[in-house]
Amino acid sequence: xxxxxxxxxxxxxxxxxxxxxxxxxxxxxxxxxxxxxxxxxxxxxxxxxxxxxxxxxxxxxxxxxxxxxxxxxxxxxxxxxxxxxxxxxxxxxxxxxxxxxxxxxxxxxxxxxxxxxxxxxxxxxxxxxxxxxxx
Length: 135
Prior knowledge:
Blueprint: E1 5-11, E2 14-15, E3 18-21, H1 28-39, H2 46-58, E4 67-70, E5 86-91, E6 98-102, H3 123-134
Parallel strand pairs: 1-5
Antiparallel strand pairs: 1-2, 1-3, 3-4, 5-6
Helix pairs in contact: 1-2
């Protein structure tokens, strides 16, 4: 059926729309890492983090399939997952991104990026990532 995964950005009691990726479940680690690097010192901004998440998920895809966004009436739970990659909540409540995995093969979260402060991020990697995205 695919490599389905759901993403949602949360900040305290606020939450973003759900971002659905049909074929990107196995790329979740890379998506999360690029998002964390891209947002840098703005990672506490829920709306901009959600928008950049969509950019990272789509990654210049030119088609009209495989990605979706829908409004949420609550924070996602494990039961909302479609299998495969499950659900990843991206918590920006304290200004540092934390990835919480529920269901699917990312359940343990061991392979997802760990929290980093702005100072710990590799900005050369940031610019190289942006160059490769825009190439």
